[in-house]
Every structure is written in C-alpha cells, then in structure tokens.
Amino acid sequence: MNDASDKELNMETRVVHAGHPEPRIERAAVMPVFQCTVYEQKDDDASYFDVRYPRLNNLPGHAALARRLASLEGAEDALVCSSGMAAICTTLMTLLRDGGHLLVQDQLYGGTHSFLVKHLKSFGMDCDFISADDPGAWNSKLKPNTRAIYVETMTNPLLRVIDHRAIVDFAREHELVSVIDNTFATPVNFRPAEFGYDLSLHSATKYLNGHSDLVAGAVIGNAKHVGAVGSLLAILGGTLEPHGCFLLDRGIKTLVLRVRHQNANALVLTKHLEKHPAVACVNYPGLEKHPDHALARELFDGFSGMFSFELTGGTEAAKKCIKRLRLPIHGPSLGGPETLVTRPATSSHAGLTAQERKDLGIADGLIRVSVGIESVEDLIRDFDAAL
C-alpha cells in the first residue's frame, strides 16, 4: 500500500503498511537499509535530481517514509531530513527567500525562537510576533512582503492552543503560506492538512520515532511547497542518512499505540497533580481548568503526552523534585517510551533571556514533563514521593 490518498484504512493500519514499495524489495517485510552512495545511472540524459544520491533525499528509504508520512496526515507529499531544526530552518528560508517577512506565534520552541531573532535578519528576512489570543491585531503586523504565518499546534512548554481554523482562514484571506509545527500533537492527535494548513513540520526525533535513539525531521504538506523545500534541503545537505531512515520507519509503526497510551497516562497524572497541595498549577489542555480546554476538545483527537507544572515552593522546590524522582529521566527531549522531565529555563528555552522567558510566562521553576508508556500508577507513586 503506497497511496497517500487512501482514506479507507484506519491510522493503526497505515502506520504499519503505508509507503512500502510494491512489490516489497526482495519480499522483505521491513524496509531495508540502503547504505549505498552510488547507484547505476541507466539514462545518460537524466537530470541531476533524477539521479539517486543520498543527499538528494531520493533513496528508497526516503521515498517510503515520504509516502507514509503524507498518508498519516492526509497530505500530498512529505520529506524527511536530518533534524527538526533542519526542517524548520530550511522551510522558512525557502518561503522567505529574497527578503520575505513572516508572522509568527509569540510562544515558540526555544530553537525556533533563536533562529528567528538571532539569524533571520542576516539572511535578509524578517519576522513579527503575533499573539494567538488577539486575532484582531494580526492585520496590523502585515507587510507588503509578508509571505507566511507560523504557529505551533500546542505551545512549548505551556501547552496553549491557538484556534487553528482562524490561522488557516487568515492565511487564505491574505494569500500567506500557513506553516505549523505539529511535533507535540503528532498525526494521531491532529492532522494539519485536514484543517487546510499548507505545511506541517516535525522533529521526528520525538514522537514519530519514539525510541530516543534518532535525530530526524519531517516536512509534510502540499506537493508544491514540499518540493520547493526539498530542493533547498538537497543543496544544504540536511537529508536523513540511510540508517536513520530505517530507525524512523521502524518507530512510526508503533506511533498510534504509543501516543494513545501517553495521552491516557498524561491525563491521569495531571488530574492527580492538580489536586496535590505542593503543586501551584498544571498546564495541560486535557484539564477542564486549562484556558484552552474547550478549543482543544474541538480540534484534537487527544491532548498529547506533554504537560508542565509549577510548585508552590518555586525554583528550589522544582530542583529538589526533579532530583528525587526515580522513574523519570532528567533530560531535555520528549516523545520517548520513558518519562522525561526538564526545566525549560535550563534546556529548551535557555537561549532566551530571563526577561524574555518571564514575558512568555515561563517561570524558572517550571517543570516540563514528557509522559512515557510506563504504568501510570507507578508514575503517580513516584511523583508523590518526590513531592
């Protein structure tokens, strides 16, 4: 099965079968690793990009992953690359080349924020930040050279949810390319193409691979824009190496099972923590007290395995809590089978100044949690003991 437009099969089936070449290569049930840099060129008149070469993102492993990812989000095309930041930076440089301007959500992953505020202008491009809560002010930020609008499905690390229908409508009204980082939600919980987004980006390092053993990225969306991003990616050299393709192909097959279990674990754990006397607040869109809970229920099939919380004792209490936890690993990534905890002030958002973090509502004592697939009862006992 390799038809990305096939809507008859459920996602549980597509994560396993979509994208595999037909017939299967040497009848192998698993996509082989094509650890090869030279392929025989049968047509002397073939164009450069028709020649098979790893940097051109056109090996069999690349193609199989592209078909599967497009199928999962109901999109036309996809490509994989060497990291999530490779996906983000190459996409923005493609869309904004020759002096373009970007509208971007004001709460972002720290790496994306750093690229925009520290490097974008050096390439002759520019951006303005917009508040997700104030769509009436978006028009005032438009410029004649505005070409795209960029948001995250759920913000990192406060898990705020923007009205994605409003973003897509605004983009269409002003002929902008709509781009979303869908890493936190995954195709299991949200499929941007179904809502009209032009491009969806992922750090495939996280949930798509899901085993904490690979760095990769993905760009998914309409064929025109994915093709343009792929052309620049091939020149910059940010494509995914062959064994990485194998690992990502393997990881995606359990995506639905993992994410649905992580959704369920996170909901139970956050409901428990919000009642704990040592916890000041919990940020999780699955909770009724979350400011965007009603919107998240409308948009998403699940609320993700990500949440963050603050303790009444502030930063020192957060440090002690992290040190006392036995099951969660103190590490800055997310989406793996093990539960991970980190303080964004010292990891994902360390590149921001203290004032910038404060302006975004990211306290130094904020703890971000990526819930794994462990027993939620064991996790609850561990957090209770640490608190």
Structural description of this entry:
It contains 14 helices and 12 strands. The strands form 2 sheets. The chain has a 7-stranded mixed beta sheet, sandwiched between helices. With 387 residues, the chain is an alpha/beta fold. It folds into 2 domains: 11-252, Type I PLP-dependent aspartate aminotransferase-like (Major domain) (Aspartate Aminotransferase, domain 2), CATH 3.40.640; 257-386, Aspartate Aminotransferase, domain 1 (Alpha-Beta Complex), CATH 3.90.1150.10. The chain has helices at residues 11-17, 60-73, 84-96, 110-118, 164-173, 186-189, 192-195, 223-236, 242-252, 255-273, 293-299, 314-324, 354-359, 376-386, and strands at residues 77-81, 101-105, 126-130, 146-152, 177-181, 199-203, 217-221, 279-283, 306-311, 329-330, 340-342, 367-370. The termini are far apart. β2, α4 and β3 (126-130) form a beta-alpha-beta unit. α1 packs antiparallel against α2 (60-73), α2 (60-73) packs parallel to α9 (242-252) and α3 crosses α8. The model has no long low-confidence stretch (mean pLDDT 93).
